[in-house]
Structure formats: structure tokens, C-alpha cells
Design goal:
Layout: H1 2-23, E1 32-36, H2 42-50, E2 55-58, H3 61-70, E3 77-80, H4 89-92, E4 96-102, H5 105-118, E5 122-127, H6 148-152, E6 157-163, H7 172-192, E7 201-203, H8 210-215, E8 220-223, H9 225-228
Parallel strand pairs: 1-2, 1-8, 2-3, 3-4, 4-5, 5-6, 6-7
The protein binds pyridoxal-5'-phosphate.
Length: 238
């Protein structure tokens, strides 16, 4: 029952992603759904993979390690989306395809060292605190541009775009404003940093606002609770 419900939820979310893409004149193929599995166990995560979703996201290193170990036989691309402390990096970096939450130069430098060590750059996004929420991690939008030169020295990471969350308090209009801000910042950095980085990706939008994010240009949406509604015994809450 649970696996069936998860497959149905996945289809529902995919349909809404496709509809939001078409509404804004985009192709649904431009958008990757990252299924955030932090509220559930390995069995539910496996049900998602079996239903055809191969991009999974975790915000806590220990959860990622645990699920990655249980899903070694599945084809999973792991996305790390939370705050990553340096002491968890060595064990996390080898498991991930994407780091969404590059939120400090120190972290990005350490990730780069890992990427250089394994001989293949790790794809990374720069997390930006667009809402100005004091509890959120990420670079301040105004501080990022001068960092281009430092970032360009980190040969073990490939910086491919920006990531943000909408402010916790606001409604849909505030979310749209935050997402539009991220897109405009990306456009600005893309020209300021021309030739250094290709900033194609925008990781923005969660269960409550992923359709708005797609209308504003998201290429990754990170969706958790909407995929597991009615599928676990516990009430899943963000
Ligand atoms: C938990 C989480 C999500 C998913 O949240 P839902 O509202 O459950 O979809 C997305 N991004 C980040 C960074 C998260 O921590």
C-alpha cells in the first residue's frame, strides 16, 4: 500500500511539474525533481526509486550515509541539500552527485579538495540567503559577486548555479519574489563571471511552492512531504 501511494504521489507531483513548466513556456525536461527523503526510512526511499525517481536528497549527513548504505543496489544520484559541517565532509562527498548547499567559502574549498582527491569535480551550487531570514544559511546576495575569483581557484568543484529557500514566514507572493531574486542574481553573476562558470541551474521550490519556483525558472525542485502524504504511519511534517 505504501509503495503504491508513493508511486501515485510521485505521478501527481510530476504532473504538476509538467503543467507548471508548460504554463511558463518551458519544457518539463528542463526540471529535475529531487525527492527529499529526510522524513522517511530507506524502504520509502526505495519505493521512490522503483517508481522511477532516481534523484534523492538529504539534508543531514548521517541520514544520507544510512540510506546510501541501504540503497547501494539502486541507481541513485544523491543530492546534499543541508548545512554540511567540515568534519562530515570526507564521508559525505564520495556519496553525492550534487551539493546544493554550498554556503561558505570554507566549505566549498574543502569540497573542492575532496573533488580533486577523487579526480572528478563535484557539482556544486551556491546557496544564497535571498529572504534575509536570520536563521538561514547561505551567502548574502550582495557579497557573492566579488568571490568569483576565489571560487575559480577551486579546481575540484564545478559551480553550476544557485540554490535558495523562500522565507519561512511569507506567502506565495513572497516566495515568488524570493525566487525571482535568485534568478536575477544568477543572470547578473552569469555575466559578471562570464567564461569562469556556467550557471545553468537554479535549485528552488519545495512542497508548498515548487510550481511558483518553476514559473520563475527553477531547474531543480526539492520536494519532500508532498511525496509521502498518506504513505507512512507517522504524520509527516516539515
Ligand atoms: C526539507 C527540505 C526540503 C523539502 O521540504 P518539503 O516542504 O517537505 O517539500 C527542500 N529543501 C530543503 C533544503 C529542505 O531541508
Amino acid at each position: 500500500m505504501t509503495a503504491l501511494r508513493i508511486a501515485e504521489n510521485l505521478q501527481h507531483v510530476r504532473d504538476r511539474i509538467a503543467a507548471a513548466a508548460r504554463r511558463s513556456g518551458r519544457s518539463p525536461d528542463e526540471i529535475t525533481l529531487v525527492a527529499v527523503t529526510k522524513y522517511v526510512g530507506a524502504a520509502e526511499a526505495r519505493a521512490l526509486v522503483k517508481a522511477g525517481c532516481h534523484d534523492l536528497g538529504e539534508s543531514r549527513p548521517q541520514e544520507l550515509w544510512r540510506k546510501a548504505a541501504e540503497l547501494t543496489h539502486e541507481a541513485v544520484r544523491w543530492h546534499f541539500i543541508g548545512h554540511l559541517q567540515s568534519n562530515k565532509l570526507a564521508r559525505t562527498a564520495p556519496l553525492i552527485s550534487w551539493l546544493h548547499s554550498g554556503d561558505s567559502l570554507r566549505l566549498l574549498e574543502a569540497v573542492s579538495a575532496e573533488g580533486a582527491g577523487r579526480g572528478a569535480p563535484i557539482s556544486a551550487l551556491l546557496e544564497i540567503n535571498v529572504s534575509g531570514d536570520a536563521t538561514k544559511h547561505g551567502f548574502h546576495p550582495e557579497e557573492i559577486e566579488p568571490l568569483g575569483e576565489s571560487l575559480a581557484m577551486f579546481g575540484g568543484i564545478a559551480i553550476r548555479g544557485l540554490m535558495a529557500m523562500a522565507g519561512r514566514e511569507g506567502g506565495p507572493d513572497d516566495a515568488r519574489r524570493d525566487f525571482a531574486r535568485l534568478r536575477k542574481l544568477r543572470d547578473r553573476l552569469q555575466s559578471a563571471w562570464a567564461g569562469r562558470f556556467e550557471l545553468k541551474e537554479l535549485s528552488m521550490g519545495m512542497s508548498g511552492d515548487y510550481e511558483i519556483a518553476i514559473e520563475e525558472g527553477a531547474t531543480f525542485v526539492r520536494v519532500g512531504s508532498a511525496l509521502f502524504e498518506g504513505a507512512t504511519s507517522d504524520d509527516i511534517r516539515p
